[in-house]
Amino acid sequence: GQNIDQPTEMTATEGAIVQINCTYQTSGFNGLFWYQQHAGEAPTFLSYNVLDGLEEKGRFSSFLSRSKGYSYLLLKELQMKDSASYLCAVVFGGYQKVTFGIGTKLQVIP
Amino acid sequence: GAVVSQHPSWVICKSGTSVKIECRSLDFQATTMFWYRQFPKQSLMLMATSNEGSKATYEQGVEKDKFLINHASLTLSTLTVTSAHPEDSSFYICSANMGGGNRYQPQHFGDGTRLSIL
């Protein structure tokens, strides 16, 4: 299968740093996306990794290790508006078809 | 700004009604679009891949005759839920890749359509 695993829920404090992990089956891997989805809304693109290493974009960073089938999304200086679900999505095989994880619901508390 | 437009945002209708949802790519041509369904507290599930000028490719378990997909132009794909029933109530979302076949381009999503069948 193309199992994508990520924690279902996390809680973190405003101003803190939180890391959301994602593991996936490595066979057929062709890239990994992170999306943010607020309740009742469509997902919005955050980051893309296809090579090993860290990609930084403002307060958000994403890391990939292809050999380990592992990625994480790092959110710094958390704000209340960061409360949302974070979806790990992997391209397997086909160059456009994306498989989504169940998403990690992050709650930021004061 | 938005690169994919989806319409309508909300639909509430009686059981047995057919509902059409439109997905448009704005300012770019999308030979391929994707239709997803998301039930509460669940992940996005790919229903089908919409291909311009040819038949859609459906995922296992998705009924072709119930979820009709038409991709008649390079900027428009439609999903028609035929004879909808309460169990079809869900959040339907389309997406398109701006880079054509480029794997390094993310999929951009429409705003979604919340379908409620009474």
If you had to describe this structure to a student in words, what would you say it looks like?
The complex is a heterodimer of chains A (110) and B (118). Chain A is mainly beta and 110 residues long. Chain A has strands at residues 4-5, 9-13, 18-24, 29-37, 44-49, 53-57, 60-65, 70-75, 84-92, 98-100, 104-109. In chain A, the strands form two sheets. In chain A, strands 2, 4, 5, 9, 10 and 11 form a six-stranded mixed sheet that branches. Chain A has a five-stranded antiparallel sheet with strand order 1-3-8-7-6, with no helix packed on it. Chain A is globular and about 40 Å long. The model of chain A has no long low-confidence stretch (mean pLDDT 92). Chain B is mainly β. Helix content of chain B is 0%, strand content 51%. In chain B, the strands form two sheets. In chain B, strands 2, 4, 5, 6, 9, 10 and 11 form a seven-stranded mixed sheet that branches. Chain B has a four-stranded antiparallel sheet with strand order 1-3-8-7, with no helix packed on it. In chain B, a hairpin with a 2-residue loop joins strand 7 and strand 8. Chain B is globular. Chain B starts with a strand and ends with a strand. The A-B interface holds A 30-31, 33, 40-45, 48, 50, 87, 91, 95-103 and B 6, 32, 34, 36, 42-46, 49, 91, 93, 97, 101-104, 106-112, 114.
Any chance you could write out the topology, listing elements then pairs?
The complex is a heterodimer of chains A (110) and B (118).
Chain A lengths: L3 E2 L3 E5 L4 E7 L4 E9 L6 E6 L3 E5 L2 E6 L4 E6 L8 E9 L5 E3 L3 E6 L1
Parallel strand pairs in A: 2-11
Antiparallel strand pairs in A: 1-3, 3-8, 4-5, 4-9, 6-7, 7-8, 9-10, 9-11
Chain B lengths: L3 E4 L2 E4 L5 E7 L6 E7 L6 E7 L5 E2 L8 E7 L2 E6 L8 E8 L9 E3 L3 E5 L1
Parallel strand pairs in B: 2-11
Antiparallel strand pairs in B: 1-3, 3-8, 4-5, 4-9, 5-6, 7-8, 9-10, 9-11
Any idea what the shape of chain B is?
A: globular
Distinct helical segment count of chain B = 0
Based on helices, strands and strand pairing, what is the structural class of chain B?
A: mainly beta
Largest interface: A-B, 22 and 25 residues
Assembly state here? heterodimer
Cα Rg of chain A: 13 Å
How many helices of chain A? The count is: 0
